[in-house]
Amino acid sequence: MSARAGRVDAELRERELDALIVGSPINLRWLTGFTGSNGMAVVGPGVRRFLTDFRYLAQARGEVADEWGHAEIASDLLARAVEGGLPARVGFEDDHVTVRQRKRLGEAVGEGVELVPGGGVVEGLRLVKEPDEIERIRAAARVADEAFREVVLEGGIVGRTEREVALDLEVAMRRRGADGVSFSPIVAAGPHGALPHATPRDVPIPAGTLVVVDWGAQQDGYASDCTRTVATGELDPRDRAVYDLVLRAQLEALAAVRPGPLGREIDAVARAVIDAAGHAEHFGHGLGHGVGMDVHEEPRLSKTGDAAIVAGHVVTVEPGVYLPDQIGVRIEDLVVVTGDGHDVISSLSKDLLTVS
Ligand code: ZN
Ligand code: ZN
Known about the structure:
By secondary structure, the protein is of the alpha+beta class. The chain has 2 domains: about 1-125, Creatine Amidinohydrolase, Chain A, domain 1 (3-Layer(aba) Sandwich), CATH 3.40.350.10; about 130-345, CATH 3.90.230.10. It contains 10 helices and 19 strands. Helix 7 crosses helix 8 and helix 9 (about 235-255) runs antiparallel to helix 10.
């Protein structure tokens, strides 16, 4: 953690900031190790301050390193954070602070301190994962994969409702150690699968169609994300062809994941395959996104993904084809970018699996 604060110091120097006030729970956890819901840190060259409220004091003493000074408690974190003065140019997380909080912040720091938007400082550093972070993402993915094997592949889904299957996935992940889900699982059969972000319904899953399952675990501070589309029996040849197309797009895009290309260049690989098959308008979302402490973070593998991919990024590769009122297919792997290529974290087969 202490190395992380040092990386923040270096980034602040680049931006000519003397300190940064960090209050968003995920950034705070990455920076200090604190897992509670209410805390605040002031970080910068020569500045280490951490505060929380009464409920979390004992926890903070266990989680937050001594370099932050002993965790202080305060009912008004902001008032205490600025007590004793702040340096001249202080950044704040403008992407997490409300208009009302910004107003209070201005009043609290008083004259002589310039508040500067400092959003993205911590998020930017979080993009390149440390080996220990990659291990945690792998562990979350493992739990999610095991839950899928148990609930979908072994348990069978035909005749059960989408909502039951989604709930079982959630429980199976938690039973294996997940703290929760990284997002509410999507289980969408037949025409419902044509909605990329479908909500599971109280409707039994029929035989002879495709079912999109998109789920992930949140464990130890890190998220996983995976999608598989399974068949529930004999398929219409058109559905099979769509599956094969999406798989081909997924594999070609995956092969392009390595340090160097921009996010949009990898997106374009999958899009070219799907466009050539006449389905351009049926692939309406980006190819993938970064995954870390947040399930959706930078970098984006999409038409607007202008950041270059570097080693240590963890991204999804998830093309989809959605035929309105008919079916949807999406295949998503979680991938870590290595020095010369990538490692696929997801362990589940991408051959079209038929489940009962
Ligand atoms: Zn997903
Ligand atoms: Zn995803």
